[in-house]
Amino acid sequence: MTRFPETAADKTRQHRTSSPLPGKRITLGFSVFYLSVIVLLPIAALVLRASHLSATELWSLATNARALAAYKLSLGASLVAALVNAAFGSLLAWVLVRYKFPGRQLLDGLVDFPFALPTAVAGLTLANLFTENGWLGKFLVPLGIRGAFTPLGVMIALTFVGLPFSVRTLQPVLENLDRGVEEAAACLGAGRLRTFVSVIIPTLFPTILTGFGLSFARALGEYGSIKFISGNLPETEIAPVLMVARLDQYDYTGAIAVAVVLMIFSFILLFTLNWVQGWAEKFQQA
Amino acid sequence: MRRLVLLTLCGWLASAAPAALAQKSVLLLNVSYDPTREFYQDINAAFATYWKGKSGEDITIQQSHGGSGKQARAVIDGLQADVVSLALAWDIDALHDKAGLIPADWQQRLPFHSSPYSSAIVFLVKKGNPKAIKDWDDLIRPGVTLVTPNPKTSGGARWAYLAAYGYALRKNSNSTNAANQFIGQFYQHAPVLDEGARSSAMTFSQRGIGDVLISWENEAQLVLNNFGDGRFEIVYPSLSILAEPPVAMVDKYVDRHGTRAEAEAYLKFLYSPQAQDIAARHYFRPRLPDVARQYEKLFPPMRLFTIDEVFGSWRQAQKTHFDEGGVFDQISRNRR
Question: Rounded to a whole number, what is the distance in Å from the CA of B212 to chain A's nearest CA?
């Protein structure tokens, strides 16, 4: 995920020391082959299928009212989820790195839970929790907060699945943060707030942005948990659910149209992420 | 690398060989829709005994269940079903339209438009009917919430939609506007639209959501007798739709598997007194008059209309109501 910039020293070292894996050509060849089969082939298949269709037909199917509503919810809910994760995930990472307290390791392990839990289980559990008769829903629904079968529920599920990304991205950077810089700031007369705002935040910001991007990407592709918490309603239909719904009606063209749009979203996101990472490294080295 | 390839090949051969040797017993795959799990388990056991006695051949029938549309799509995409038993004719039509797996006139190959049993759409309410739900109009009263699957994904939900719509048409002297308005309000009262009939039944009976479940009669009876513990009762509306879930042999795949004779016998068996009796015990309305008489108490007479009477045909109903941009999409847009 992280790109290491090659320095001149790296280049010379590469030629002198032998790599522990034999045969640069074989390993390189295999890597290219592996990537092609695992990543490029499915993308090519999708593009190929889409290329049989007329552009106008694809465009109208990709941009009709139902599809637009689905993108809007997909992007909107993912954005909210990623923002929440960026804020509270950063706080969580800070607490986990900076403070020593009993149960820290347990808490640290819990962060990975949304990674390991099958998303369908997460969706089902969250839906049961937030329905009228659920543990939380019992108290929240009378207050008008409906966390199941509503766009809010979609956001909750997306926040859940995206949490580890922002925490785990930030943690190593926080651990390596040079405390000398903070001390220097204090010596130069900066208060705690000033140190935080003008020294720590600027250093961490690119990483927080990367974590935000990762959890955003994760949320955009989420399907399993949404299937359950969205209640299959028209107003909670996200783009991947729309794609499957269209397939179920034998509307292959409509499904491909959505698939292509989702693929474009992922590409844009991927390039932006890579660019942010590159920028962050330059920034941190400076 | 080469050794790895060889090993993999050997592995494939080893796993394929026993399958080739064990050809003596026949395997059929019945791809079916959501609420028929228990029914076909019994049918399959009965047919295996019957077929062993008739032909001496051991037969195993595998079942696959899910939303009707999803199941049809799986077959179109290459799931090699020998027979399909789906919720509605449109889904089997798709096997012809999209993949040419069966001839266009498949519905004429067996009696009763290839539907060996029928059902209706009924209401399941809580014991004592606390919200006094008697008929379709009661469903759109303020404060009533109903549970029904999403017509986009569920065959049963489409029957339910058409039953409600047909009722509204009849009541408003066939005014499409009035019926559209009624069906719009109907779905306003649904807090959740599950993917299939079985998940809706679970939402209503296990999670306690909603005042009334709009359901297949067979599914409602199943909940009543197997999961209900006396907590529910069935309400028969004044008018409903005659739901005819059809069956068909998938010609292309039975010919590939060499199972045409078995598949044909299996589907014919569904019309036999024994299978009709099993159907009735699983709360499907039997076609044979003798069996129907025997189970009179289980199936109160209902006023039912057929889809052809009110909507022309499944193809037409699908196009007007459920295809993208159809009536269901229009009323959904108002929800957003």
Answer: 16
